[in-house]
Amino acid sequence: MTVRIGTRGSKLALAQTEIVANKLKGLGIEVEQKTVSTQGDEVTNVPLHEIGKQGVFVKALDDAILNKEIDCAVHSMKDIPAIRPSGLVIAAILPRDSPADFLAYFGPVSSVKIVGTSSTRRKAQLLRHDPDLEISDLRGNVDTRMRKLREGQYNAIVLAEAGLQRLGLRIPGERLPPEKFVPTPNQGTIAVVSRADPSLMEVLSVLDHPGTRKDVAIERAVMEQVGAGCFTPMGIYCKAGHLTAEVLSLDGKRIERIERDVATIEEARAIGKDLREKAGSLIEEAYRKLGISL
Q1: pLDDT number for residue 215
Q2: In order of start, what are the domains of the chain with their CATH numbers?
Q3: Scanning 115, 210, 268, 280, which has its CA 20 to 30 A from the CA of 250?
Q4: Is residue 56 very low, low, confident or very high in pLDDT (cuts 50, 70, 90)?
């Protein structure tokens, strides 16, 4: 059986796909790769929240699977929307790599005044840590972001540590602890999406890591109940059943946070509902200030 794997064309997406391909090849499974362009790759001059809802990196690959142009696609799990098309499944979730953000900068940290990121979550968490920082929009792949940092357009930029590790990059800076800078749900996790074909799912299931699947399922259950989308500063992180979830104001000055151990998806949903009730005004405020309808 030959498995046709779809991927975005960025260096990181290709590196993640190579991880999956090599694991399958190691099991004696033949692999073909196909690069597919997505809306998130094509529109790079505006913040993600201005393009559309979660899924701008996913839909084209979903369509290619459903049209049988490819058998499966490799994604960063955090990019996969909660609502999925009929006929698709998350066939495998690989062991989680670092969930943390990484603050990249040259020179002393005391010189960091302007930080580049287009994430409302990262912006709010940085401002909570240091209200005097100036946060400036930044998009593009890792190479583009690092070029802009070297050119001095920013004093620092925020990247996902897992992405740097997968690309084999060693960059000056520091890891932002996920207990304090709570990551976006499912950050650091690679997922394989396929058609709901039993024979294909059986092949891909050998890549699945049950512990990671449970943690990311808990995160997604909380996320779905909060329902704040990518417009609201929100971090959700679960490690071995210990959950930390928070919603912040855009300026980082106000926060609703829940931290506790979770054993079941039902418990996670209940926590999500509780957080939604507590943070409702922060969510509404974020949408209003960004000019987006709930």
Answers
A1: 98
A2: 1-94+189-208 (3.40.190.10), 101-176 (3.40.190.10), 210-289 (3.30.160.40)
A3: 268
A4: low
